[in-house]
Design brief:
mainly alpha; 5 helices; 64% helix; 0% strand; globular
Amino acid sequence: MIPMRIFNHYHVNIAGTINAYKQLYQKAIQRGLVNKTDEDEQKFYNFICHTEIQQLTDILYQDAPIPDNFFDLKHLLFERTLNRK
């Protein structure tokens, strides 16, 4: 799991924020969620713009299996958001 401090570290620097998003994209490639293509990169960035970033980060960095498509990942994010304490 990657902690939110990675994002807090970059709070005043847009280049740092972009780098953090790129790190998440690389992790998504490693986990098999997306391929390393311009189209998949754009789809991934569009997807994460509309999700809760902490939940997505937790899912990508967990050791357990993750969904292999955006539909199921969105459902998992929604479930975790609803069940958050």
